[in-house]
Amino acid sequence: MGDILRIGRLELRVLDLEKSVDYYTNVIGLEVTGREGDRVYLKAWDEYDHHSIILQKSDQAGMDHMGFKVKDIYALEKLEKKIEQFGCTLTRSSENTRLAEGEAIRFKIPTGHYMELYTDIKQVGTRVGVINPHPWPDGLKGIAPHRLDHCLLTGDDLETATRFYKEVLGFHQTERITTVDGEVTIGSFLSCTNKAHDLAFVKGPDAKFHHAGFYVDNWYEVLKAADILTKHDVQVEVTPTRHGITRGQTTYFYDPSGNRNEAFASGYISYADFPTITWTEDKIATGIFYHRREMVETFSTSLT
Length: 304
Ligand SMILES: [Fe+2]
Hints:
alpha/beta; 2,3-Dihydroxybiphenyl 1,2-Dioxygenase, domain 1; 9-stranded mixed beta sheet; 8-stranded mixed beta sheet; globular; binds fe (ii) ion
């Protein structure tokens, strides 16, 4: 593992804040940890930091930024220099720009999305604690994922985006989708941990958000997630199935603003020397939906 520890937070823009809080608490099963102005802060039960999801009231759905947590201030300063050298415009946000957060650096990545790196955030712990903990707390609601797991974004120049994440931020590429001749990258799956992906891109318009993936334990929990969605009358875009890419198990659905969410389980582990797996465009549907081997139309067109 390098200087970047993990995906730490996503700030999502939502249209109706109260409706969204109801969805993210009762259907997804996150806990509200703070509220200030037009923002509500939430975390999954198994996360120690103050929040991993920030809902920001807006007139347009989508992602404000993704934040990755860095191991310490020295690593943050080192990364800041490398990001500037790559040519990204960078700003520093001061402590308490948002609730419970310390300083962060904010910059635009080659696909036009905003990313933040930070090391300082208040740690609030979990309800099971860290001394002789039970495996899960009582009173969980909804899907109750362990954590925010990854996000998928769209962008045009995925070669440059991949180079930025590998060379500047120290990610490794676990998988890629290319045109059959291998010339153009149309999907790139990147990891800064030993997970199958922490961040992924598929070819599409710049600066758009495809989905946020929440981690659940296993295949049965993915099935149960879909049961919970139907119980709550939430639109399910893709019923439980398996990905070829990552080998994860999955179901996709939408939050009340149209931001896509995923309940994701399993997937292999990867190390820094993991050889990049290639999927060719003619097998893209098998890579994404391993059983049906057919694309779901909305899956590539519905973006926020
Ligand atoms: Fe995903």
